[in-house]
Amino acid sequence: MKSPAGISAMACILCGATQSAAIHRGGDSLYRTTDEMFTVVRCAGCGLARLDPQPVDVGRFYPVRYWHTPGRLEEIYRRLVIRDHVRFARRALGEGRRVLDVGCGSGLFLRVLTEKSRAPRAATSETGKKKTGRDETSVTGIDASTQAAALAWHDHGVPVAVGNLVRAPFAAASFDLICMFHLLEHLADPIDCLNAVRGLLAPGGKLVIQTPNLDCWQYRLFGKRWSGLDIPRHLYDFRLQDLRFMLHNCGFRVVRVKHFSWRDNPAGLATTIAPRLEPVARSARGDRPHVFWRWLYPVLTLASLPLALLEAFFGHGSSVMIEAATADPARGAV
Question: How far is CA 48 from the centre of its chain?
Fold first, then answer.
């Protein structure tokens, strides 16, 4: 149903329960795009957390400068920490070649992925002699933002379609690997998206997803201040068990789980402690703090590393990365 304030309420997407309990009330503390307050609820049936009611037009909570060309130091840092994602994706890709990144943003992940794939590799010919070839990977991105697509083309030479995956102009079985980093939590209907992924994956293809993990120590310590909630842009707040259940219902089985990300976990804790210093949000807001405050955020990120590593070691990292394959009915889901 739809309320007079332009927000919609819905039953739980995982279990269909209509009963829930409010656990947090908060606003946009990161980008400050609105003074509105929002409620995070927990489903009484399965425990999935979500905004309720959910905003109909989530796009208005993304600032105009949400996507921008980073400075030289920021670009170096992004390239360094994104390699963690690249390694995870390349292992999932295996011998495949065709990659789609959904919600690709500026295209940096795909750019680094192709740079690594172009390294010469040793191969064995039919005569048994080694020969040198190049492991070329074909990459495509899709994003709802025209700004992001323009950056991907201009800054990284990555082809990007603008639009929604459910209505994307791709043929069935077009990709060997589909990646969705920090996307599902932003979607009003993540199940529709996962069903669309199944149709686009070739036989033997893999899916890689990453989301914040509500079952992390950072959330237990900081509650509604935890940056992983990102009210109001995150419509859902998943735990690993929620993701497993959803993937299983959409015809996937979990192959591998990773609880740590060099890009997200330490920086996420630094953002929780000092949200006003987060560089992307600061740039989007047009803030120009003293040089001391600009350098404080990297120091906080480094100081956050021990806790981020420790919670991940015990399976409660602030983000969770999953490799999934289409389910084999004989084996069932993991």
Answer: 18
